[in-house]
Design brief:
The structure holds two protein chains of two kinds. In chain A, α4 packs antiparallel against α11 and α6 crosses α7. By secondary structure, chain A is mostly helical. Chain A is globular. Chain A is about 75% helix and about 0% strand. The N terminus of chain A is likely disordered. Chain B is built from eleven helices and twelve strands. Chain B has a six-stranded mixed beta sheet with strand order 6-7-8-3-9-10, sandwiched between helices. A four-stranded antiparallel beta sheet of chain B has the order 2-1-4-5. In chain B, α5 packs antiparallel against α6. The N terminus and C terminus of chain B are likely disordered. Classes of the chains: A mainly alpha, B alpha/beta.
């Protein structure tokens, strides 16, 4: 037996996956970071007034308050680009975590109702209190997302057969539709207040919510970090509760941690950009097509691809009907759906 | 019944023990006041009709289910009060019908077995690499190490899962119906592998099995459960009897010894038995 082992075993120093996949996966990360940086610069460069990339770079590195272009970059366009990256990353990572933990390929904040809950909470808060300090928006959204997540889970648990991927998806869809109807009713009853929310509810990056950004960004980044730490355990949990417990994972506690992480990611995204669909569902699947099922790779890749994707979509949203602007929430699916179908077909053949 | 009482009084080394285990709700416990000591270095096989509590006993021993009364001791420590990751370094579990996430390769799956040995600060090491390679070699899955698990045959898949539990490098391994839905040849191969693990590598195995003849052929200790209690317990030559099969499974069967392998096998008969069938059976035996 020992001869067999030494015959097959690669050198002890070799990385985990001797097929070279490990090396390829880690090499892909800096490449993606470079792509993300390029998209980031491009995103800032385009707009009502096109700026050369060199100006963008200058404005970011050595800011000169006397130059008007620098002011455009720093005050108007940089926040929007940062929001696009953060929201894209947050939604993709939230989707990836939920798909892993629930072993449901359809799981994501939108489909399981968290996004509708967060939106509903924000709409209600503004409807009741007229003006809500923006500092509170992420927290209001978080409470909405959390309560909805629990309600969806309870409904699914209540159904015959318990909380299966199917019952969770159905409960999420039902709650999303129900809350959507309530938001419409609120809108009808109070047109003036809700007119300002209309664009936000379609999912938009145009609000330039710098004040919300300063509140949400630290939490969002913290949650992304926690997601990275949890990713190893999510891979184990994706193999089944009993397998995970046998390997020494405290599955109940892990699920609570993941839920909190997902709620923070969703709430910050909704507070920043409204309910953006599609990103959380599709980006993790695209990532999986290329790098497999280990969440230690899926999570960072989803963050980078999601961020780059939302930047790209927002560039198109601003360029397509210039000087008009299409809501980003509409573009995410319009651009993404054909792309996704193409990818799936290509990989299948 | 006398066998079970006498076998309970036999003394042997046992690191994993269940003490007056009751699992389930008060009105209808699935497992009722069960005492059980797993013999070290042996293949112990749990059999019983559906709903007898054999899987429940295994899950309680593996700390997946928490008993309402009694306790499970691993090296003298209450397993449900121990740190689960520390337990996972001593005790491995292969649950029934595990499903690998789509696209996970064999090597990735087996590597998950190293989870309890790793931490944030102590990531992948050469020791992990060695354990994974050795596990894949023993379970004979090296040839398709880089293929996705979901594309393999049932038998190959099950060997991958066994490799994962082996990579965990635990002295004790619990397996819940590892041979279900596999071809007979594949079942036999798997059982040979498990026996080899116990007898040559000193692992302690507890296996829930459905297939009675496989259980009788490969068990060092055979445990028969019915209605949430252990009814018979001992080496197959003592407990694998016609009377016990009738009492535990309500199965009418002859138990005969295969002249070549010297293993016990049961041959079901229909009840009431036509006289000529008995004669045929006797003649073969």
């Amino acid at each position: 037996m020992t001869t067999q082992v030494s015959q097959f075993a690669p050198t002890p120093e070799s990385p985990e996956d001797s097929s070279g996949a490990w090396l390829a996966y880690s090499a892909g990360l800096p490449v993606l970071v470079a792509v993300l940086a390029l998209m980031f610069g491009w995103h800032i460069a385009v707009g009502a007034k096109s700026l050369p990339l060199s100006t963008v770079l200058n404005a970011l590195i050595s800011y000169d308050a006397s130059q008007f272009d620098h002011m455009i970059v720093r005050d108007l366009r940089l926040p929007r680009a940062v929001i696009a990256v953060l929201v894209g990353a947050a939604l993709s990572v939230a989707g990836a975590l939920m798909q892993g933990v629930t072993r449901n390929p359809l799981a994501e904040p939108g489909i399981l109702g968290l996004m509708a809950g967060a939106s509903f909470a924000v709409v209600m808060a503004i409807g009741v209190f007229q003006t809500v300090p923006t500092v509170w928006l992420p927290w209001v959204a978080a409470v909405g997302a959390m309560v909805t997540a629990v309600v969806v889970w309870l409904i699914a648990q209540w159904a015959p057969g318990g909380a299966t991927p199917l019952t969770l998806t159905l409960a999420g869809a039902a709650i999303t539709a129900f809350l959507g109807a309530l938001i419409s009713v609120a809108h009808l009853l109070n047109q003036e207040t809700f007119e300002q929310l209309r664009v936000w509810l379609a999912g938009s990056l145009s609000g330039r919510r710098v004040d919300v950004l300063s509140v949400a960004a630290p939490w969002l980044c913290l949650a992304l970090g926690v997601a990275m730490v949890l990713s190893r355990k999510v891979t184990v949990l994706a193999m089944g509760d009993d397998v995970a417990r046998g390997l020494g994972v405290r599955t109940g506690w892990l699920k609570v941690q993941v839920l909190l992480c997902v709620v923070v990611l969703t709430a910050c995204s909704v507070a920043l950009a409204g309910p953006l669909g599609f990103v959380g569902l599709v980006i993790p699947h695209v990532v999986r097509l290329f790098i497999g099922s280990d969440y230690r790779w899926i999570v960072p890749y989803s963050a980078l691809v999601g961020g780059a994707y939302l930047l790209g979509v927002d560039i198109i949203a601003r360029l397509a009907l210039r000087p008009q602007e299409i809501a980003t929430g509409i573009m995410t699916a319009m651009v993404g759906a054909p792309l996704f179908i193409h990818l799936v077909r290509q990989r299948a053949s | 019944m006398s066998e079970s009482i006498s076998s309970r009084s036999i003394r042997y080394a046992s690191r994993l023990q269940g003490e007056s285990l009751t699992v389930g709700y008060d009105a209808a416990p699935i497992l009722n006041d069960v005492d059980f000591q797993v013999p070290d270095g042996q293949v112990t096989i749990l059999v019983g009709p559906n709903g007898s509590g054999k899987s429940t006993l295994l899950k309680a021993l593996a700390r997946i289910l928490t008993p309402t009364e009694g306790q499970v001791l691993l090296d003298g420590q209450d397993i449900h009060r121990s740190k689960t990751r520390e337990v996972a370094k001593k005790l491995g579990l292969l649950p029934q019908g595990p499903v690998a996430p789509e696209g996970l390769t064999v090597r990735e799956l087996v590597a998950q077995g190293r989870f309890p040995h790793q931490s944030l600060l102590r990531q992948w090491s050469s020791e992990d690499e060695r354990a994974v390679n050795e596990a894949m070699t023993v379970a004979k899955v090296f040839d398709f190490a880089d293929r996705p698990v979901d594309g393999l045959s049932g038998g190959q898949r099950q060997r991958c899962w066994i490799a994962m539990v082996l990579a965990q490098q635990t002295d004790l391994v619990l397996l819940d119906e590892p041979t279900t839905f596999l071809d007979l040849k594949v079942q036999v191969d798997l059982m040979e592998l498990l026996v080899q693990l116990a007898h040559q590598m000193g692992r302690t195995l507890v296996v829930v099995l459905h297939e009675l003849n496989l259980a009788a052929a490969y068990a060092d200790t055979l445990v028969m459960l019915r209605d949430g209690a252990i009814k018979h317990w001992g080496p197959p030559s003592d407990v694998f009897t016609s009377a016990n099969l009738k009492a535990v499974f309500d199965l009418d069967a002859h138990v005969i010894r295969d002249p070549h392998s010297k293993r016990l096998i049961c041959v079901p008969t229909s009840a009431p038995e036509p006289a000529q069938h008995i004669e045929v059976g006797v003649r073969i035996a």
